[in-house]
TrEMBL record:
PANTHER family: COMPLEX I INTERMEDIATE-ASSOCIATED PROTEIN 30, NAD(P)-BINDING ROSSMANN-FOLD SUPERFAMILY PROTEIN. Transmembrane segments: none annotated. Belongs to the CIA30 family. This is Uncharacterized protein LOC103324919. Residues 146-292 form the NADH:ubiquinone oxidoreductase intermediate-associated protein domain. It comes from Prunus mume (Japanese apricot). Residues 11-84 form the NAD(P)-binding domain. It comes from the Eukaryota. The gene is LOC103324919.
Length: 319
């Protein structure tokens, strides 16, 4: 089992649930438990256990926000069954099989627990768990196309002379399909040295908290580019940034984990910036620049023309 993401154990105070929690902790995996009785759970599993108090038979207690970060679920919830006639206080007759006891359900029915309850649980965690495919933010994939409004943002804003454009080529993509082209000419004249394209702020922020990063399918020119993701609607604000290298004239898949994004403002790391919030993605930017950040230079930077084709830009990907 991969270590990325939280494992949720439902019914963690039962016999199977406790064993499951112990096994996961032994492997060093992050665990969150779903229980009905907080006091009982902390007594059994420890005072610092990460827990959600809820009842799967009551949908209103399973708030989806409680399950953010959960990637896998182990369900140990079960119907409570016991002897109809009861037993001695020490349960000797029943546990030793001396006498057969007619069983009966002591709590909620199987329908309420194993059908309605599991349906409620699935509904609550479906935004985080079981994602096999990424979510297309922009680009072309199979017969799907999602468009975003892109605009050039070059060093002319600082007095430079670089320029870039973004165009759609209907037949220039992989296997003859459509593709986007980010191209232009970059110059260091007038203290410039960068070009970029940036989307308008999305009308509704993208919630990608169920995913681990962004994936790009592109054909580059052996140069290093930057992907910038913003979580604020302000124009001049921190951009969570990661650089990636391209291979000349060859289609490649680039994955940018959210964990690799650094808070950057005007090519400087912002040490006190809030952590990146994948649930509130507002805009995207692709940049070719002379600079990395904090005074470092892009080792692949060359003045002149550049071009990169993008087939999927961007698509989120699951664990």
């Amino acid at each position: 089992m991969e270590t990325s993401g939280i494992v949720l154990v439902a019914g963690a105070t039962g016999g199977v649930g406790r064993r499951g929690v112990a096994a996961l902790r032994k492997k060093g995996l992050p665990v969150r438990v779903l229980v009905r009785n907080e006091e009982k759970a902390r007594k059994m599993l420890g005072p610092d256990v990460d827990l959600i108090v809820g009842d799967i038979t009551k949908e209103s207690t399973l708030v989806p926000d409680y399950f953010k970060g959960v990637r896998r679920v182990i369900n140990a919830v079960s119907v409570i069954v016991g002897p109809k006639e009861g037993d001695t206080p020490d349960r000797q007759k029943y546990s030793q099989g001396i006498k057969f006891f007619e069983p009966e359900i002591k709590g909620d029915s199987p329908e309420k627990v194993e059908y309605i309850g599991i349906r409620n649980l699935i509904k609550a965690v479906k935004g985080s768990v079981g994602l096999q495919n990424g979510k297309l933010l922009f680009g072309f994939e199979d017969n799907n196309y999602r468009e975003l409004a892109w605009g050039a943002l070059d060093d002319v804003v600082m007095g430079g002379v670089s320029e870039s454009t973004f165009q759609i080529d209907p037949n220039g993509g992989e296997n003859g399909g459509p593709t986007g082209i980010f191209k232009g000419v970059v110059s260091t004249a007038n203290n410039g040295g960068f070009t970029s394209i940036r989307t308008k702020n999305l009308s509704t922020a993208e919630d990608l908290s169920a995913y681990d990063g962004l994936e790009l399918r592109l054909k580059g020119d052996s140069r290093r580019y930057k992907l910038i993701v913003r979580t604020s609607r302000d124009w001049d604000t921190v951009g969570y940034t990661a650089g990636f290298d391209t291979v000349g004239d060859q289609w490649q898949t680039v994955r940018v984990p959210f964990s690799s994004l650094k808070p950057i403002f005007r090519a400087r790391t912002v040490s006190d910036a809030p952590p990146f919030d994948p649930s509130n993605i507002v805009s995207l930017q692709l940049m070719f620049s002379k600079f990395e950040y904090d005074g470092k230079l892009n080792p692949t930077f060359v003045e002149g023309a550049f071009k990169v084709r993008t087939r999927r830009f961007c698509r989120s990907y699951p664990t």
